[in-house]
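[User]
If only I could read backbone structure tokens as easily as an amino acid sequence. I have put the entry right below:
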Amino acid sequence: MTTWMRCYWDEEDVWFYFEVDAEGWVTRQIELQGPELTPITAASLDEWHLAQDAGRLDEYDKRFGTTSELPVSDWEGHVPEELSFDQFERVWDRARRQITARPS
């Protein structure tokens, strides 16, 4: 079962949005920074693997970032707020459009 959540890290003024699979691994991750909610990450684990297989991992990481390397169950001190699929998708679509529109 897939779940969607978000949490806020006030030290860096960043909202983290996560899509998490049944085993607790992050499959998509968004990071929005500052009062303007500027997207700094909008990464998909599936796309990351495809980029790795194609030898384009550095390019992918620079543009979209990466997903968490730990399952959610190993995180300390985070208090997630659950989201619906639609809530997550709206943020995902906006972040991806903004990141993709930037010059590479």
The radius of gyration is 13 Å. The longest strand covers residues 26-33. The chain has a mean pLDDT of 92. The beta strands are 3-9, 14-20, 26-33, 38-44, 81-83.
